[in-house]
Every structure is written in structure tokens, then in C-alpha cells.
Amino acid sequence: MLERLRRLLPPPADPVEPGRPQGWAEVEAALGTELPRDFKAFTERYGSGKIDDFLYLFNPFTAGQDGNLVAEKDLVLAGYRQTRARFPERLPWPAFPEPGGVLPLGRTDNGDELYWVTDGRPDQWPVALVEARAALQEVHPMPVTGFLAALAANQLASRVLPQDLLRRPSHRFSPFPDP
Questions:
Q1: What angle do the packed helices 144-152 and 37-46 form, to 10 degrees?
Q2: Under CATH, which architecture does the 2-160 domain have?
Q3: What are phi and psi of 92, to 5 degrees?
Q4: Rounded-to-integer distance, Cα 136 and Cα 133, Å
Q5: What helix, strand, coil percent values describe the chain, rounded to 5?
Q6: Measured distance CA(130)–CA(161) in Å, rounded
Q7: DSSP alpha helices (H): ranges in the chain?
Q8: What is the pLDDT of residues 15-67, one digit of tens each?
């Protein structure tokens, strides 16, 4: 999947805050779980940035707390738990670390949230999208790089993401400015 994604959505020549292979053990210990290999490879190759100036994945190697996977995990899950307690019919999954719970993955500029559904081995975790107001949610049974490749190929069906994003003539990854 990562090779397909690279062809469709070229990575930056000089990624900002790329993942470091020797740093994953510390990240996974802090999160309390292993992470999917494709996410690690994506982070190492792309670093921090946005897709179409709209969607971004949390990066555990980001220097600040904003957008840092380890820092965002507890904040995002606290909000998720509150919303789920008030509207359990809108959010069918428990929060991580419960079995099958959601683990934050990223967000959009509209406030939509991306999660992994931590069911099974990490390399098999599907991507869940939750609309900003939690009225819509959907699961995409593919790894994150498959999800991004489908988006970049205009083959992703979604009721959460805007149609103009899903049907753009081309997509691009833009690195965040250097910290």
C-alpha cells in the first residue's frame, strides 16, 4: 500500500519531523500498544504535514503537543468518552484501551476525527471516521496507507469527508513548516 500511496501522493523530499525507527519502542510503550507497520513507514517517509491542506495524521515525533499522537491520545479520548456517554448510539466503539476500542489517528480541518479500531493485530486495524458532531461515523476496513491511497486515487467512498476533497483532480501532501 505504501508504494501505491507514494505514486499517488508523493512524499516530501525533506520531511519535517519524520519518524525514527529507533524511536518507535518508546512511542509504543507510552501509548500502551504496538502500532501498525504501515503507519510507522508513512511517518518515517512523510513526517508531519497535511493532505490537501485539510487532513492530517497525528505524528508521535512532533515536537509540540498539538498533533503529537502521544499527547493527543488522552485529550481526544477524554472528549470521545464524554460524547459517547451522552450519545452512545452515535459512537458504537469503546475507547482504547478497551478491546476493540478506538485510538486517535488524526483529524480534519472540519473537526472530523480519524481513529484506528483496535480490533485484532495492529496491522489489521481498520480506519474509522467520526464526523465533527458525531452524527455520522464510518469504518474503512483497510490500513491507514490504504485509506490515504484510496483518497488520493478518488476511490474512497465517504459520507463524512467533503465531496470536493473526495473528487479533486489531484491530491498533495504538504509538510508543516519546520518547528
A1: 60
A2: 3-Layer(aba) Sandwich (3.40)
A3: -75, -15
A4: 8
A5: 35, 20, 45
A6: 10
A7: 2-8, 24-31, 37-46, 69-86, 144-152, 163-166
A8: 999 999 999 999 999 999 999 999 999 999 999 999 999 999 999 999 988 89
Among 36, 88, 54, 80, which residue's Cα sits nearest to residue 158? Answer: 54
The answer, as to whether pTM is greater than 0.85, is: yes
CB contact at 8 A, 113 and 107: yes
Distance CA(5)–CA(23), nearest Å, equals: 23
What radius of gyration, in Å, describes the C-alpha atoms of the chain? 15
Pair 138, 128: CB distance under 8 Å: yes
Beta bridge partner(s), residue 44: none
Cβ-in-10-Å burial (0-12, 13-18, 19+) of 74 comes to exposed
Per-position DSSP letters for 15-27, written without gaps between them: -BS---GGGHHHH
Are 69 and 31 in contact by the 8 Å Cβ rule? The answer is yes
Which three cell numbers, joined as nine digits, stand for 110? 472540519
